[in-house]
Amino acid sequence: MLTIRSQSHDYTVEEYPLLGKALTSVTGGKGVFFLIDRAVFRHHVTAFSDNVPEETCILIEASEEQKSFERLPSIFLELLARGLKRDGTLVVIGGGVLQDIGCFIATVLFRGVRWELIPTTLLAQADSCIGSKSSINIGSYKNQIGTFYPPHRVLLVADVLKSLPWDQIRSGLGEVIKLQLIEGGAGFNELMNDLELVTPESGWEVISKWVKRSMAVKKPYIEQDEMDRGIRNILNYGHTFGHAYESATKYAIPHGIAVLLGILTATYLSVRLGLVPFSHYQDLKQRLFPWCCPYGDLLVKADRPNIFDAIRHDKKNTGDAVNCILTKGAGRMEKVKVDFPGDLMPAVEQFIAQEMVKGA
Amino acid sequence: MLTIRSQSHDYTVEEYPLLGKALTSVTGGKGVFFLIDRAVFRHHVTAFSDNVPEETCILIEASEEQKSFERLPSIFLELLARGLKRDGTLVVIGGGVLQDIGCFIATVLFRGVRWELIPTTLLAQADSCIGSKSSINIGSYKNQIGTFYPPHRVLLVADVLKSLPWDQIRSGLGEVIKLQLIEGGAGFNELMNDLELVTPESGWEVISKWVKRSMAVKKPYIEQDEMDRGIRNILNYGHTFGHAYESATKYAIPHGIAVLLGILTATYLSVRLGLVPFSHYQDLKQRLFPWCCPYGDLLVKADRPNIFDAIRHDKKNTGDAVNCILTKGAGRMEKVKVDFPGDLMPAVEQFIAQEMVKGA
Q: Quick one: CATH architecture of B166-355?
């Protein structure tokens, strides 16, 4: 069991072998209601029907459209109509979209209600389930609304990962890899060697091990800088470019894989700015690129103006400068203001044109 | 200048003689946008047009309907479209409704943006402008959604109170009186004597003095218990009944006057429960009742079931018990669980039937 310190309240991460065990361990007392990813519910319908009263379950479509401010009222009203009270508990079960919706609702309903989280994707288990953040879309604006409010407990169920498609596993591994690069120790090599054992059918113990190792890397950053105003920014390594690649390909690239492509871009830019030798980039590309295939092809086909617009409008950019997390080597990431037309644009152009073509 | 400590950030309360001076003192740097009560804007149109670029002003109807979650998207989208950025500032100008809307938006936009508040009603100046809370309606549920996020600065302009209707002044004085009763010192008598100088046309210096005295009483409660989980509950003295009286009369009774009627009810109930002698209630009624007229009449006409439903569904009640702030005398308020059918209902029935009829 891991304990995370937070400005709102400390919280624990606990492991359960099976979903049913986790469901019966929810510590809500009276008035527990569940927000559940519809696909997760379908896949584990027996675990739910055996352990949870049907009338306490609200099923949510886990789509980007659902994660919008305009769609929240129906969920709030459903919870209030079914009888959630200020001393009740909201249990959120799903991946990133469910976490965003559930966290936002738990933050503002009764000015904060107890909530517990059962993350069901590798991305959510290894990365997003700790750190307090929610992000909500409004109109055509992505992730501009949000809150900081961690769950009161995180319940990790390794078993639920077994039903995920391979690309979702790879996507989660993208953030796992990022965290070991940020850590900068021997973990990265150990991880990349371990990952050779992971296939769509096997390697669950390996994944479970790296979920916990990922949290151990992330914990000090979110505890020191929960509101993401300083040192925690480092965790955005690869994200300025990754977000832009996702958006410019209409989310055809899974998030964690876009982050890996973003890490390669940031490292490539770091080389061009003289921060790190080219050999560091080459080594990294050799290790990471196999985990990105075939999504590099989509980058080559993506409209460059869409990519550049997305980078400029990233919510981390204030005014005209573009803030990037660049690298001076493993474990040495830094926030750097990069000149957009002079340095960033040509580096991204060249990265995609020369590094993402097949066989490069 | 007063400084208030808060978990989010400390903030100051500063006095300005005129609205124009306050407007030009906004410390936003680049990207300042104003959310303004439409009626306040109309009344002070010269101060605004002389000091604030028109394209930065968004006018809001200060109604209970506007304070609903479903109506927020258009305001968020207007702010984003006009160019508010995460390093910008939102300036909120108005009474309680504007403060609720502005505070909620500032809490969740970019996960928290700088905001400054110019409260323009006596209720807002003397009470709500400090303490961090926002309350938002959703569907038919009142104030069930909200946040804790204080402004970064409060700018007090005594001059704007001069344009308020007399009932709004009286309403604000309700909370001023409540705070002196909670304080329990000589302030209550001093206040009630001072108030004899206040008429619809005069007494601004007196009011200005008691705005500051009110903040001084409230400050330690909100600093010690910003999230309203303990000692701050005391500030709800009169509110369980006051809210019910407002709701059962469709908000025909101004908030602060309903609070005064609620204080009399809570004290009457305290007498029936043997907490305080009847003479204490009698003294209080003699001092407070003139400030409630003629709204006691509306209570007599109000449907009792509406009043009782509202008390039971007050968001401070968890489960079946009804929590009330009762009194053992001036300065001695306590949270008490009251038996609803056995004690509370007959006390309220009798209070309205015997104490609110004319000449009682």
A: Up-down Bundle (1.20)
